Amino acid sequence: MDNSMPVVSKFFCSSTSTTLMIRKRPIVVNGGGFVVTDLSNNVVFIVDGCGILGSKGELLVKDSDGERVLFIYKKGGIVQALSTCNKWNGYSMDYQGKDKLVFSLTDPKSCITKGAPIRIHIEPKRHCKNWDFEIRGSFADRECTIIDCTGKIVAQMGKKEQIGNKDFYYVVMQSGCDKAFIIGVMAVLDNINGESTTC
């Protein structure tokens, strides 16, 4: 039975649960961002932030071959400036370089909405509520969970205890989960929290 939940591509969905390690790159080396490896230390994804891309609020997820998989940017403009939330849009990129909106993420930015959950909408719209995924917990403390609109956990983040610092952490993804999508969400959370993808 196929239980895959593709957002970016079915290619990134695994039939078993997967643990990926995330290692931040120093901002002075290659402009920041982070590297994602499997438990055998093989590179799976590379995330570039504004240090490489040259623009704040832009993120790029590449596969292990350096091919662009997901381009994410923070919406701007007067409407966004007046909004109580920041909105990020994620676009999948095909082999011809064309992009297609696959998700949007909104995070509260004002004291009025403080404590409101970060929610993700998938495109084309398919949510069972007015959102598809919700992020709970604290990214800064490396204790956050991504749930779907039915309440099922799809990914969980934790610290790598034996390393002893925040430069390494892991994400456990349930079977069928789109790994590229989850890493894209981690990239946005990293940027929101002013970590390795920011300038």
Provide structural commentary.
- The protein has one domain: LURP1-related (Porin, Beta Barrel), CATH 2.40.160.200.
- 12% of the residues lie in helices and 40% in strands.
- It is built from 3 helices and 12 strands; from the N terminus they run βββαββαβββββββα.
- It is globular.
- It is mainly beta.
- The chain starts with 17 loop residues before the first strand and ends in a 7-residue tail after the last helix.
Please tag this protein with its features.
199 residues, mainly beta, Porin, twelve-stranded antiparallel β-barrel, 3 helices, 12% helix, 40% strand, Tubby-like_C
Topology at a glance:
Elements: E1 18-24, E2 34-37, E3 43-48, H1 50-53, E4 58-63, E5 68-74, H2 78-82, E6 85-93, E7 99-108, E8 118-122, E9 133-138, E10 143-148, E11 153-159, E12 168-173, H3 179-192
Antiparallel strand pairs: 1-2, 1-12, 2-3, 3-4, 4-5, 5-6, 6-7, 7-8, 8-9, 9-10, 10-11, 11-12
